[in-house]
Design goal:
This protein is α+β, with helices and mostly antiparallel strands. It has 16 helices and 16 strands. The protein has 2 domains: 246 residues, BirA Bifunctional Protein, domain 2 (2-Layer Sandwich); 80 residues, 3-Layer(aba) Sandwich (Rossmann fold). Helices cover 39% and strands 22% of the residues. Strands 1-5-6-11-10-9-7-8 form an 8-stranded mixed β-sheet. A 5-stranded mixed β-sheet has the order 13-12-14-15-16, sandwiched between helices. It has a 3-stranded antiparallel β-sheet with strand order 2-4-3. The protein is elongated and about 95 Å long. The chain binds one RNA strand through helix 3, strand 6, strand 10, strand 11 and helix 13.
RNA sequence: GCGGGUGUCGCCAAGUGGUUAAGGCCUCGGAUUGUGGUUCCGAUAUUCGUGGGUUCGAUCCCCAUCACCCGCCCCA
Protein backbone atom coordinates (compact mmCIF):
# COMPACT_ATOMS: atom_id res chain seq x y z
CA UNK A 1 0.00 0.00 0.00
CA UNK A 2 1.23 3.44 -0.90
CA UNK A 3 1.19 5.80 2.03
CA UNK A 4 1.73 9.51 2.42
CA UNK A 5 5.45 10.27 2.41
CA UNK A 6 7.25 10.48 5.68
CA UNK A 7 6.82 13.87 7.25
CA UNK A 8 3.81 14.75 5.14
CA UNK A 9 0.20 14.79 6.24
CA UNK A 10 -3.22 14.82 4.66
CA UNK A 11 -5.34 17.64 5.94
CA UNK A 12 -8.69 15.90 6.26
CA UNK A 13 -12.20 17.40 6.11
CA UNK A 14 -12.54 17.06 9.88
CA UNK A 15 -9.56 19.41 10.31
CA UNK A 16 -10.11 21.76 7.44
CA UNK A 17 -12.42 24.16 9.26
CA UNK A 18 -9.63 25.25 11.55
CA UNK A 19 -7.27 25.65 8.61
CA UNK A 20 -9.80 27.79 6.84
CA UNK A 21 -10.26 29.90 9.93
CA UNK A 22 -6.51 30.42 10.19
CA UNK A 23 -6.33 31.47 6.56
CA UNK A 24 -9.33 33.76 6.80
CA UNK A 25 -8.03 35.44 9.94
CA UNK A 26 -4.67 36.00 8.28
CA UNK A 27 -6.20 37.46 5.13
CA UNK A 28 -8.42 39.87 7.00
CA UNK A 29 -5.79 41.03 9.46
CA UNK A 30 -2.94 41.46 7.00
CA UNK A 31 -5.01 43.02 4.25
CA UNK A 32 -6.45 45.37 6.83
CA UNK A 33 -2.90 46.42 7.62
CA UNK A 34 -2.27 47.06 3.91
CA UNK A 35 -0.25 43.93 3.20
CA UNK A 36 -0.91 42.40 -0.24
CA UNK A 37 -0.96 38.68 -0.70
CA UNK A 38 1.78 37.26 -2.88
CA UNK A 39 2.09 33.70 -4.16
CA UNK A 40 5.49 32.66 -5.37
CA UNK A 41 6.50 29.28 -6.84
CA UNK A 42 7.04 26.23 -4.69
CA UNK A 43 10.46 25.67 -6.26
CA UNK A 44 13.22 28.10 -7.09
CA UNK A 45 16.78 28.00 -8.34
CA UNK A 46 18.92 26.27 -5.71
CA UNK A 47 21.27 29.21 -5.89
CA UNK A 48 18.60 31.52 -4.48
CA UNK A 49 18.53 29.67 -1.18
CA UNK A 50 22.27 29.13 -1.03
CA UNK A 51 22.82 32.86 -1.30
CA UNK A 52 19.67 33.99 0.45
CA UNK A 53 19.26 31.68 3.41
CA UNK A 54 23.00 31.24 3.77
CA UNK A 55 25.63 28.65 3.04
CA UNK A 56 26.44 28.01 6.67
CA UNK A 57 22.90 27.21 7.78
CA UNK A 58 21.59 23.75 8.51
CA UNK A 59 18.69 24.43 6.20
CA UNK A 60 20.95 24.80 3.19
CA UNK A 61 23.52 22.25 4.25
CA UNK A 62 21.37 19.27 5.00
CA UNK A 63 17.67 20.00 4.77
CA UNK A 64 16.94 21.03 1.21
CA UNK A 65 14.99 19.05 -1.34
CA UNK A 66 17.28 19.70 -4.28
CA UNK A 67 17.21 17.98 -7.65
CA UNK A 68 18.14 18.58 -11.24
CA UNK A 69 15.82 18.50 -14.15
CA UNK A 70 16.74 18.34 -17.83
CA UNK A 71 19.47 20.54 -19.21
CA UNK A 72 23.17 19.90 -19.48
CA UNK A 73 24.33 22.61 -17.17
CA UNK A 74 23.78 21.49 -13.61
CA UNK A 75 23.94 24.96 -12.15
CA UNK A 76 21.11 26.11 -14.33
CA UNK A 77 18.91 23.12 -13.83
CA UNK A 78 19.36 22.61 -10.11
CA UNK A 79 16.13 23.51 -8.38
CA UNK A 80 15.03 23.32 -4.77
CA UNK A 81 11.69 23.05 -3.04
CA UNK A 82 11.48 26.21 -0.98
CA UNK A 83 12.53 25.66 2.65
CA UNK A 84 11.22 29.12 3.60
CA UNK A 85 9.66 31.97 1.71
CA UNK A 86 11.62 35.12 2.41
CA UNK A 87 14.17 34.39 -0.29
CA UNK A 88 11.44 33.76 -2.85
CA UNK A 89 9.54 36.91 -1.97
CA UNK A 90 12.73 38.96 -2.16
CA UNK A 91 13.46 37.43 -5.56
CA UNK A 92 9.98 38.41 -6.76
CA UNK A 93 10.41 41.88 -5.26
CA UNK A 94 13.56 42.40 -7.29
CA UNK A 95 12.34 40.68 -10.45
CA UNK A 96 9.18 42.74 -10.72
CA UNK A 97 10.79 46.07 -10.00
CA UNK A 98 9.08 46.71 -6.68
CA UNK A 99 12.01 48.83 -5.63
CA UNK A 100 10.40 51.48 -7.84
CA UNK A 101 7.09 51.15 -6.07
CA UNK A 102 6.05 53.58 -3.39
CA UNK A 103 7.54 52.66 -0.04
CA UNK A 104 6.72 50.61 1.95
CA UNK A 105 6.01 47.53 -0.08
CA UNK A 106 4.15 45.08 2.14
CA UNK A 107 3.46 41.44 1.30
CA UNK A 108 1.92 38.50 3.10
CA UNK A 109 1.85 34.84 2.09
CA UNK A 110 0.54 31.44 3.06
CA UNK A 111 1.90 28.22 1.67
CA UNK A 112 3.81 24.97 2.01
CA UNK A 113 7.53 24.80 2.72
CA UNK A 114 9.82 21.78 2.54
CA UNK A 115 12.68 20.70 4.72
CA UNK A 116 14.24 17.26 4.82
CA UNK A 117 14.38 16.71 8.58
CA UNK A 118 13.52 14.03 11.04
CA UNK A 119 9.79 14.44 11.68
CA UNK A 120 8.60 15.13 15.21
CA UNK A 121 5.76 16.86 16.91
CA UNK A 122 5.56 20.32 15.39
CA UNK A 123 7.99 19.38 12.67
CA UNK A 124 7.14 17.93 9.30
CA UNK A 125 8.91 17.71 5.99
CA UNK A 126 6.12 19.54 4.28
CA UNK A 127 4.78 22.23 6.56
CA UNK A 128 3.02 25.53 6.11
CA UNK A 129 4.00 29.04 6.93
CA UNK A 130 2.14 32.30 7.04
CA UNK A 131 4.39 35.29 6.85
CA UNK A 132 4.72 38.96 6.12
CA UNK A 133 7.56 40.97 4.61
CA UNK A 134 7.89 44.74 4.61
CA UNK A 135 10.37 46.41 2.27
CA UNK A 136 11.85 49.86 2.18
CA UNK A 137 11.56 51.08 5.74
CA UNK A 138 14.57 51.38 7.97
CA UNK A 139 12.60 53.15 10.66
CA UNK A 140 12.11 51.03 13.82
CA UNK A 141 8.36 51.55 13.62
CA UNK A 142 8.41 48.93 10.87
CA UNK A 143 9.99 46.36 13.20
CA UNK A 144 7.41 47.16 15.84
CA UNK A 145 4.51 46.88 13.41
CA UNK A 146 5.67 43.47 12.24
CA UNK A 147 6.11 42.12 15.77
CA UNK A 148 2.78 43.57 16.86
CA UNK A 149 1.12 42.07 13.82
CA UNK A 150 2.41 38.60 14.61
CA UNK A 151 1.07 38.83 18.15
CA UNK A 152 -2.18 40.35 16.98
CA UNK A 153 -2.69 37.45 14.62
CA UNK A 154 -2.08 34.91 17.37
CA UNK A 155 -4.40 36.71 19.72
CA UNK A 156 -7.10 36.85 17.03
CA UNK A 157 -6.74 33.10 16.79
CA UNK A 158 -7.59 32.96 20.46
CA UNK A 159 -4.11 32.40 21.81
CA UNK A 160 -3.46 34.73 24.69
CA UNK A 161 -0.55 35.39 26.93
CA UNK A 162 2.15 34.88 24.41
CA UNK A 163 5.20 36.99 24.83
CA UNK A 164 7.60 37.95 22.12
CA UNK A 165 11.28 37.62 22.83
CA UNK A 166 13.34 40.28 21.16
CA UNK A 167 16.99 40.96 20.64
CA UNK A 168 19.25 42.96 18.39
CA UNK A 169 22.05 41.33 16.46
CA UNK A 170 23.55 44.65 15.46
CA UNK A 171 24.78 45.44 12.00
CA UNK A 172 27.47 43.46 10.16
CA UNK A 173 30.12 45.82 11.46
CA UNK A 174 29.42 45.74 15.17
CA UNK A 175 28.48 42.11 15.02
CA UNK A 176 31.86 41.18 13.61
CA UNK A 177 33.54 42.93 16.47
CA UNK A 178 31.28 41.14 18.93
CA UNK A 179 32.02 37.78 17.30
CA UNK A 180 35.70 38.41 17.68
CA UNK A 181 35.34 39.28 21.33
CA UNK A 182 33.39 36.09 21.97
CA UNK A 183 35.93 34.04 20.09
CA UNK A 184 38.76 35.56 22.09
CA UNK A 185 37.01 34.94 25.37
CA UNK A 186 36.25 31.33 24.49
CA UNK A 187 39.62 30.54 23.02
CA UNK A 188 40.96 28.98 26.23
CA UNK A 189 37.90 26.72 26.43
CA UNK A 190 37.87 25.65 22.83
CA UNK A 191 38.78 22.06 23.66
CA UNK A 192 35.92 21.72 26.10
CA UNK A 193 33.23 22.86 23.72
CA UNK A 194 31.02 20.29 22.01
CA UNK A 195 31.84 19.29 18.44
CA UNK A 196 29.06 21.40 17.01
CA UNK A 197 30.30 24.44 18.84
CA UNK A 198 33.81 23.90 17.56
CA UNK A 199 32.42 24.22 14.07
CA UNK A 200 30.25 27.16 15.04
CA UNK A 201 33.28 28.83 16.60
CA UNK A 202 34.69 29.19 13.11
CA UNK A 203 31.58 29.54 11.00
CA UNK A 204 29.05 31.40 13.09
CA UNK A 205 30.13 32.04 16.69
CA UNK A 206 26.83 33.65 17.62
CA UNK A 207 25.05 30.39 17.21
CA UNK A 208 27.10 28.86 20.01
CA UNK A 209 25.09 30.97 22.41
CA UNK A 210 21.93 28.95 22.17
CA UNK A 211 23.73 25.61 22.35
CA UNK A 212 21.80 23.20 24.58
CA UNK A 213 24.80 21.07 25.40
CA UNK A 214 25.31 21.07 29.17
CA UNK A 215 29.06 21.35 29.01
CA UNK A 216 28.86 24.38 26.77
CA UNK A 217 26.12 25.99 28.83
CA UNK A 218 28.36 25.63 31.86
CA UNK A 219 31.18 27.41 30.14
CA UNK A 220 28.87 30.24 29.12
CA UNK A 221 27.82 30.56 32.76
CA UNK A 222 31.40 31.38 33.62
CA UNK A 223 31.40 34.92 35.02
CA UNK A 224 34.04 36.24 32.68
CA UNK A 225 32.48 34.74 29.56
CA UNK A 226 29.03 35.76 30.62
CA UNK A 227 30.12 39.35 30.88
CA UNK A 228 31.42 39.28 27.36
CA UNK A 229 28.28 37.63 26.05
CA UNK A 230 25.91 39.89 27.89
CA UNK A 231 27.86 43.05 27.26
CA UNK A 232 26.14 45.52 25.01
CA UNK A 233 28.11 45.19 21.85
CA UNK A 234 26.01 46.97 19.31
CA UNK A 235 27.10 50.29 17.91
CA UNK A 236 25.48 53.68 18.53
CA UNK A 237 23.14 53.53 15.53
CA UNK A 238 22.09 49.97 16.18
CA UNK A 239 21.47 50.69 19.83
CA UNK A 240 19.40 53.70 18.98
CA UNK A 241 17.41 51.62 16.51
CA UNK A 242 16.88 48.88 19.07
CA UNK A 243 15.77 51.32 21.73
CA UNK A 244 13.29 52.84 19.33
CA UNK A 245 11.88 49.43 18.49
CA UNK A 246 11.28 48.88 22.19
CA UNK A 247 9.76 52.32 22.55
CA UNK A 248 7.33 51.61 19.71
CA UNK A 249 6.48 48.24 21.21
CA UNK A 250 5.58 50.01 24.43
CA UNK A 251 3.40 52.46 22.55
CA UNK A 252 1.66 49.53 20.88
CA UNK A 253 1.31 47.88 24.31
CA UNK A 254 3.09 44.80 23.06
CA UNK A 255 4.39 42.56 25.79
CA UNK A 256 7.94 41.52 25.13
CA UNK A 257 10.97 40.12 26.87
CA UNK A 258 14.54 40.84 25.98
CA UNK A 259 16.63 37.77 25.34
CA UNK A 260 20.24 38.40 24.59
CA UNK A 261 20.78 34.76 23.79
CA UNK A 262 18.25 34.86 20.99
CA UNK A 263 20.01 34.22 17.72
CA UNK A 264 18.18 33.24 14.59
CA UNK A 265 19.56 30.41 12.52
CA UNK A 266 19.27 32.11 9.18
CA UNK A 267 22.16 34.20 7.93
CA UNK A 268 20.22 37.11 6.56
CA UNK A 269 19.09 38.69 9.81
CA UNK A 270 20.56 41.86 11.24
CA UNK A 271 19.50 44.21 14.01
CA UNK A 272 16.04 43.22 15.30
CA UNK A 273 15.25 39.54 15.72
CA UNK A 274 12.29 38.09 17.57
CA UNK A 275 10.58 34.84 18.37
CA UNK A 276 7.20 33.95 19.82
CA UNK A 277 7.15 30.80 21.89
CA UNK A 278 4.62 28.64 23.66
CA UNK A 279 5.46 26.00 26.21
CA UNK A 280 2.39 24.04 25.10
CA UNK A 281 4.33 22.88 22.05
CA UNK A 282 7.01 20.70 23.57
CA UNK A 283 10.50 21.08 22.27
CA UNK A 284 9.51 22.84 19.06
CA UNK A 285 8.34 25.82 21.03
CA UNK A 286 8.61 28.63 18.50
CA UNK A 287 5.29 29.47 16.86
CA UNK A 288 6.65 32.42 14.96
CA UNK A 289 9.94 34.09 14.35
CA UNK A 290 11.41 36.84 12.29
CA UNK A 291 13.46 39.94 12.16
CA UNK A 292 15.14 42.51 10.02
CA UNK A 293 17.16 41.66 6.93
CA UNK A 294 18.51 44.88 5.52
CA UNK A 295 21.21 43.24 3.42
CA UNK A 296 19.25 40.51 1.66
CA UNK A 297 17.76 42.41 -1.27
CA UNK A 298 21.15 43.73 -2.25
CA UNK A 299 22.78 40.35 -1.73
CA UNK A 300 20.32 38.82 -4.17
CA UNK A 301 21.07 41.44 -6.78
CA UNK A 302 18.60 44.21 -6.06
CA UNK A 303 19.08 47.76 -4.90
CA UNK A 304 19.96 48.12 -1.26
CA UNK A 305 16.60 47.94 0.50
CA UNK A 306 15.92 47.58 4.20
CA UNK A 307 13.34 44.95 5.09
CA UNK A 308 11.72 43.21 8.02
CA UNK A 309 9.34 40.27 8.33
CA UNK A 310 8.22 37.18 10.15
CA UNK A 311 7.03 33.65 9.46
CA UNK A 312 4.65 31.58 11.51
CA UNK A 313 4.32 27.79 11.58
CA UNK A 314 0.75 26.86 10.75
CA UNK A 315 0.93 23.28 12.05
CA UNK A 316 2.28 24.58 15.33
CA UNK A 317 -0.43 27.19 15.50
CA UNK A 318 -2.96 24.47 14.76
CA UNK A 319 -1.85 22.67 17.92
CA UNK A 320 -2.62 25.73 19.98
CA UNK A 321 -5.99 26.84 18.69
CA UNK A 322 -9.38 25.63 19.69
CA UNK A 323 -11.02 23.49 17.05
CA UNK A 324 -14.56 23.94 15.99
CA UNK A 325 -17.13 21.37 15.07
CA UNK A 326 -18.37 20.89 11.58
CA UNK A 327 -21.47 22.91 10.86
CA UNK A 328 -24.67 21.06 10.07
CA UNK A 329 -26.44 21.38 6.75
CA UNK A 330 -29.44 23.71 6.58
CA UNK A 331 -31.56 20.97 5.02
CA UNK A 332 -31.54 17.28 4.33
CA UNK A 333 -34.27 16.22 1.95
CA UNK A 334 -35.98 13.02 3.05
CA UNK A 335 -37.97 11.34 0.34
CA UNK A 336 -38.40 8.13 -1.57
CA UNK A 337 -39.38 10.14 -4.59
CA UNK A 338 -35.92 10.66 -6.03
CA UNK A 339 -37.01 13.07 -8.75
CA UNK A 340 -38.58 15.38 -6.21
CA UNK A 341 -35.66 15.04 -3.85
CA UNK A 342 -32.92 15.94 -6.27
CA UNK A 343 -34.96 18.79 -7.69
CA UNK A 344 -35.65 20.23 -4.26
CA UNK A 345 -32.02 20.02 -3.23
CA UNK A 346 -31.06 21.94 -6.34
CA UNK A 347 -33.69 24.58 -5.53
CA UNK A 348 -32.40 24.97 -1.96
CA UNK A 349 -28.82 25.30 -3.11
CA UNK A 350 -29.85 27.96 -5.62
CA UNK A 351 -31.21 29.86 -2.63
CA UNK A 352 -27.75 29.65 -0.99
CA UNK A 353 -28.88 27.05 1.52
CA UNK A 354 -26.67 24.07 2.22
CA UNK A 355 -28.58 20.92 1.35
CA UNK A 356 -28.22 17.28 0.45
CA UNK A 357 -30.29 14.12 0.11
CA UNK A 358 -29.94 10.34 0.12
CA UNK A 359 -28.64 9.17 -3.21
CA UNK A 360 -29.24 5.54 -2.25
CA UNK A 361 -32.97 6.00 -1.83
CA UNK A 362 -32.92 4.10 1.43
CA UNK A 363 -35.90 3.54 3.60
CA UNK A 364 -37.62 6.58 5.01
CA UNK A 365 -36.57 5.84 8.58
CA UNK A 366 -32.92 5.52 7.59
CA UNK A 367 -33.01 8.76 5.67
CA UNK A 368 -34.45 10.60 8.62
CA UNK A 369 -31.87 9.07 10.90
CA UNK A 370 -29.13 10.35 8.64
CA UNK A 371 -30.81 13.77 8.46
CA UNK A 372 -30.79 13.95 12.25
CA UNK A 373 -27.04 13.46 12.28
CA UNK A 374 -25.97 15.93 9.62
CA UNK A 375 -28.67 18.58 9.21
CA UNK A 376 -30.62 21.18 11.12
CA UNK A 377 -33.85 20.55 9.25
CA UNK A 378 -35.40 17.76 7.24
CA UNK A 379 -37.58 18.49 4.23
CA UNK A 380 -40.01 15.62 3.92
CA UNK A 381 -41.59 14.92 0.55
CA UNK A 382 -43.99 11.99 0.22
CA UNK A 383 -47.27 11.17 -1.47
CA UNK A 384 -49.23 13.41 0.90
CA UNK A 385 -46.98 16.40 0.24
CA UNK A 386 -47.07 15.95 -3.52
CA UNK A 387 -50.85 15.66 -3.66
CA UNK A 388 -51.30 18.47 -1.15
CA UNK A 389 -48.77 20.74 -2.88
CA UNK A 390 -46.72 21.48 0.23
CA UNK A 391 -43.44 20.50 1.89
CA UNK A 392 -43.10 19.25 5.43
CA UNK A 393 -40.17 20.82 7.20
CA UNK A 394 -39.07 19.22 10.43
CA UNK A 395 -36.76 21.01 12.82
CA UNK A 396 -34.46 18.20 13.84
CA UNK A 397 -33.50 19.76 17.14
CA UNK A 398 -36.98 20.52 18.47
CA UNK A 399 -38.93 17.93 16.49
CA UNK A 400 -41.37 20.63 15.43
CA UNK A 401 -42.99 20.23 12.00
CA UNK A 402 -44.46 22.75 9.58
CA UNK A 403 -46.18 22.54 6.24
CA UNK A 404 -44.61 25.06 3.91
CA UNK A 405 -44.77 26.21 0.30
CA UNK A 406 -41.64 25.82 -1.79
CA UNK A 407 -41.01 29.57 -1.69
CA UNK A 408 -41.17 29.53 2.12
CA UNK A 409 -38.25 27.13 2.52
C1' G B 1 22.71 11.92 11.65
C1' C B 2 22.44 9.97 17.05
C1' G B 3 19.70 8.01 21.57
C1' G B 4 14.73 5.95 23.88
C1' G B 5 9.59 4.04 23.18
C1' U B 6 5.52 1.99 20.31
C1' G B 7 3.01 -0.78 16.06
C1' U B 8 -3.72 -5.97 17.05
C1' C B 9 -10.46 -3.88 12.11
C1' G B 10 -11.84 3.21 9.94
C1' C B 11 -11.08 4.82 15.55
C1' C B 12 -10.19 3.27 20.82
C1' A B 13 -8.61 -1.27 22.91
C1' A B 14 -7.95 -6.67 25.64
C1' G B 15 -5.09 -10.87 24.76
C1' U B 16 -2.08 -15.77 25.04
C1' G B 17 3.53 -20.23 22.46
C1' G B 18 -1.41 -24.53 20.62
C1' U B 19 -8.81 -25.86 17.80
C1' U B 20 -13.33 -20.01 16.31
C1' A B 21 -8.04 -13.21 18.09
C1' A B 22 -12.44 -10.19 23.64
C1' G B 23 -15.03 -5.63 24.04
C1' G B 24 -16.54 -0.46 22.85
C1' C B 25 -17.32 3.45 19.01
C1' C B 26 -18.29 4.28 13.87
C1' U B 27 -20.42 1.99 9.44
C1' C B 28 -24.09 -1.32 7.25
C1' G B 29 -28.66 -4.40 7.67
C1' G B 30 -33.10 -5.91 10.56
C1' A B 31 -37.04 -5.16 14.58
C1' U B 32 -39.94 -0.47 12.08
C1' U B 33 -42.31 -0.44 3.37
C1' G B 34 -44.07 7.97 6.09
C1' U B 35 -41.05 10.27 11.24
C1' G B 36 -34.83 10.09 13.54
C1' G B 37 -31.20 11.05 17.57
C1' U B 38 -33.33 5.89 23.21
C1' U B 39 -33.64 0.39 22.97
C1' C B 40 -32.99 -4.65 21.00
C1' C B 41 -30.91 -8.17 17.28
C1' G B 42 -27.38 -9.19 13.47
C1' A B 43 -22.97 -8.25 10.00
C1' U B 44 -17.88 -6.65 9.38
C1' A B 45 -9.71 -8.66 11.19
C1' U B 46 -8.25 -16.35 6.87
C1' U B 47 -5.46 -11.82 10.58
C1' C B 48 -2.25 -9.22 14.69
C1' G B 49 3.06 -2.85 10.49
C1' U B 50 6.31 -5.70 6.71
C1' G B 51 10.03 -9.60 5.56
C1' G B 52 12.78 -13.48 7.44
C1' G B 53 14.22 -17.03 11.50
C1' U B 54 13.46 -20.39 16.02
C1' U B 55 9.55 -24.12 16.87
C1' C B 56 5.59 -29.86 15.64
C1' G B 57 3.03 -24.86 16.01
C1' A B 58 3.71 -18.11 16.74
C1' U B 59 -0.07 -12.11 17.17
C1' C B 60 2.60 -13.29 21.49
C1' C B 61 10.31 -15.51 21.29
C1' C B 62 14.70 -13.72 17.98
C1' C B 63 16.67 -10.71 13.76
C1' A B 64 15.99 -7.18 10.09
C1' U B 65 13.09 -3.45 7.92
C1' C B 66 9.42 0.35 7.75
C1' A B 67 6.23 3.86 10.06
C1' C B 68 4.80 6.79 14.12
C1' C B 69 5.88 9.06 18.97
C1' C B 70 9.58 11.33 22.54
C1' G B 71 14.48 13.57 23.12
C1' C B 72 19.34 15.76 20.80
C1' C B 73 20.49 19.08 16.66
C1' C B 74 18.02 22.89 14.00
C1' C B 75 13.89 25.66 12.83
C1' A B 76 8.12 27.96 12.02
Amino acid sequence: MIKAQRGTKDILPENILTWQRIEKTARELFQGANYKEIRTPIFEATELFKRGVGDSTDIVNKEMYTFSVGGQNKDESSITLRPENTAGVVRAFIEHGFSRASVPVKFWYFGPMFRYERPQKGRQRQFHQIGVEMFGVENPSADAEVIALALKFLSKMGIKELVAEVNSLGCPKCRDEYKNRIKNALKPYLDKLCDDCKVRYEKNPLRMLDCKNEGCAEIFENEEIKNVILADFICEECLEHYNSVKKYLDILKVKYKENKMLVRGLDYYNRTVFEIKSDALGSQSAVAGGGRYDGLVEMLGGEKTPAVGFALGVERLYELVEHQEEEKLDYFVVSNLQDKAIETVQYLRDKEKSADFDFQNRKFGKQLEKAGKIAKNAVIIGEDEVSGGYYTVKNLETGEQKKLKLSEL
